[in-house]
Write a structure and sequence with these properties.
The chain is an alpha+beta fold and 633 residues long. Among the domains are: 137 residues, Resolvase, N-terminal catalytic domain (Rossmann fold); 94 residues, no CATH class; 121 residues; 88 residues. It has 16 helices and 25 strands. Strand 24 and strand 25 form a beta hairpin. Helix 7 crosses helix 10 and helix 14 packs antiparallel against helix 15. The N and C termini lie far apart (95 Å).
């Protein structure tokens, strides 16, 4: 057996990607150099291992690990690299393999540029020094990148690889965010639904039923390279309850002498599974056990899918939507009656539907009111990939950096509701407009919802009931519909009084004389103009920072321009804060005018929040019960 079986290892690192317009060309250059060395030494080429877009500190490189495994299995005698750093920049890895494992496995390591050779005992120290230098380089690079990113974040520049849902990166400046109009409509819908009393679960359910793509699916549909982790994205079987997409690809169909062929596809345990068929190829007919499927019907299990009549097609693809209700392994099996050289590939993907967590994250993200929130996570070391979340007080928040999708009033309403932790009605999954508004006038606990035995009526009762009336003797409940009617009557009386009073006259006069709509729009245009200027000056700031890094301007010039642009940006942001406050005041007046000019027939969350601070309910005294409504104005 030859003792010169040589493996070439090639790596292009993430830090090198910007240096080469053609990634493959760099790999070719490495390969050409190493093949020349093999020919000169008369070694035998065993295999070539290539890792592209991997850092030298990454020990999960697929080809690197395949190389190590083959070395351990005595399939390789020599590992040849362009330089030691291509093999690894981690000193621990260099010591583990070059100076330990490779010696035990009788594997020689050779690199050309830095003359590393484990057969040469004399250059062990130089290899160790190179290892330290390579690791120091990574550490310095990591610190420089962190410092640069922090500086950009503090300047309000977006530094993430993918824009948040609802936005996209500005084509002219990747550090600026611009509104993605299509996705922004979905974000607005989520905030509006929550403001109307919808729960996270109900919003997610609504979006899924409307077949509105989730943020991940939307990115995928629009060509983004954003991916989920492999563990949650692709599997060869279903093992957890949830929604999945199952894609079957069949190739190399040789049907020249056949009129048709039938494929029978089934799950090995389909007692608790529903399957929805989605036809991709129009020539494919789909059947269940008995009948042909039409119009992508939804079919309940158990089910066997028969896919007939391929009619001389060389390849086909079809997709199933699978929903499971138990944590149980479901394997997809494909059987065909004829022995043909058919290649069948089955991919099961976890379906990324809207979830409660996704809705919650969107509703609390300040990015949607124009504030850049970054620096939420950090890694303890460039060697450790574990991501740790910082405390909110340590996040980097820069206000008014881009155009808002959500107005400040809607944002405040949503945050107020989230802050109050208002409970959702389990029966209707809706928010009761009176939640956290009705208070016991004896013990000052909130009234909570309950129902009678046959669930015909809903009631409110003092929360002290849970303590078995330890602190309160206000033990009688009140029917919810009765209380609603009382509040509606009092609201309409209150509005009638206002109509005869000066408040409504002033509001109507203000609306007539100042034309609220027109005034609001003028201020909004001024706000947008300021936002555009902020983006422009932020772009200038980004450019001068790059000029500083490239040393095309001096430190003194950078400091002067830095202070100038930061001051101008801060002045514009302060102006915008004032404008937002003014817009909110005018919109509140407009809302009051419109509500006060209509008769209220039912209660909504907006009406309650606009007019009512609290509703106090006394105990029953001589068959009478005092109910006091505290108005907001």
């Amino acid at each position: 057996m030859s003792m010169n079986r040589t493996a070439i290892y090639l790596r292009l690192s993430k830090e090198d990607l910007d240096k080469f317009e053609n990634v493959s060309e760099s790999i070719k250059n490495q390969k050409r150099m190493l093949l020349k060395k093999i020919k000169q030494e008369n070694w035998q080429l065993q295999d070539i291992y290539i890792d592209e877009d991997y850092s030298g500190i990454d020990n999960k490189r697929p080809e690197f690990n395949r190389l190590i495994k083959n070395c351990e299995n005595q399939k390789i005698d020599i590992v040849l690299c362009k330089s030691q750093s291509r093999f690894s920049r981690d000193m621990e890895v260099i010591e583990k393999y070059l100076h330990n494992k490779f010696i035990l496995w009788n594997v020689r390591f050779v690199s050309l540029v830095d003359n590393a050779d484990t057969d040469n005992i004399g250059n062990k120290k130089s290899r160790q020094i190179n290892g330290l230098v390579n690791e120091w380089y990574l550490e310095d690079t990591s610190l420089n990148i962190k410092a640069t990113l922090k500086n950009k974040k503090e300047a309000g520049l977006f530094t993430g690889p993918f824009a948040p849902f609802g936005y996209q990166k500005d084509l002219e400046n990747k550090n600026n965010l611009v509104i993605d109009k299509k996705a922004a409509l979905i974000v607005k819908k989520i905030f509006n639904l929550y403001s109307q009393g919808f729960s996270y679960q109900k919003i997610a359910s609504y979006l899924n039923k409307q077949k509105i793509p989730s943020p991940y699916e939307y990115k995928k549909q629009n060509g983004s390279k954003f991916t989920l982790s492999n563990n949650t994205l692709k599997t060869d079987y279903i093992f957890k309850k949830g929604n999945y997409n199952l894609i079957v690809k069949i190739e190399n169909l040789s049907l020249n002498n056949l009129s048709n062929i039938k494929l029978v596809s089934t799950f090995n345990d389909n007692k608790n599974i529903d399957i929805q068929i989605k036809k991709i190829d129009k020539n494919i007919l789909l059947f269940d056990n008995k009948n042909q499927l039409k119009n992508d019907n939804y079919i309940k299990s158990p089910l066997t899918c028969i896919i007939p009549y391929f009619k001389k097609m060389s390849s086909i693809q079809y997709e199933l939507e699978v929903k499971t209700y138990q944590n149980k392994k479901y394997q997809y099996l494909t059987n065909y009656p004829l022995k043909l050289p058919i290649s069948i590939q089955t991919i099961i993907q976890k379906k990324t539907n809207w979830t409660e967590k996704t809705i919650s994250n969107i509703l609390k993200n300040e990015i949607y009111i124009g504030n850049m929130v970054q620096g939420k996570y950090y890694k303890k070391s460039y060697k450790n990939k574990k991501v740790i979340m910082k405390k909110p007080k340590d996040w980097i928040v820069v206000k008014n950096t881009h155009e808002a999708i959500i107005d400040k009033k809607t944002w405040d309403q949503v945050q107020e509701r989230k802050k109050n932790k208002i409970r959702i009605d389990r029966k209707t999954n809706n928010l009761n407009p009176l939640s956290q508004k009705v208070v016991c006038n004896i013990c000052h606990n909130f009234f909570i919802k309950t129902s009678n035995t046959n669930h015909k009526y809903e009631y409110l009762i003092c929360k002290d009931k849970k303590n078995k009336w330890v602190n309160c003797n206000n033990k009688n409940s009140i029917r919810l519909d009765t209380l609603n009617n009382i509040i509606i009557q009092e609201l309409n009386k209150f509005i009638v009084q206002l109509k005869d009073d000066t408040i409504l006259k002033k509001l109507n006069s203000f609306n007539k004389n100042n034309n609220l709509f027109k005034k609001i729009n003028i201020i909004k245009k001024e706000y947008q103009k300021n936002n555009d200027l902020i983006s422009l000056k932020t772009n200038f700031f980004s450019n001068i920072y790059e000029d500083k890094v490239k040393k095309t301007i001096t430190e003194q010039q950078f400091d002067f321009l830095n202070q100038k642009y930061l001051k101008e940006i801060n002045d514009l942001k302060n102006q915008n804060q004032f404008l937002l406050k003014k817009i909110k005041e005018l919109e509140n007046k407009f809302l009051k005018v419109n509500i006060l000019n209509t008769d209220i027939t039912f209660l909504t969350l907006n009406i309650i929040n606009e007019f009512i601070d609290k509703i106090y309910i006394d105990k029953i005294d001589n068959q009478n019960r005092n109910i006091v409504i505290v108005w907001k104005f």
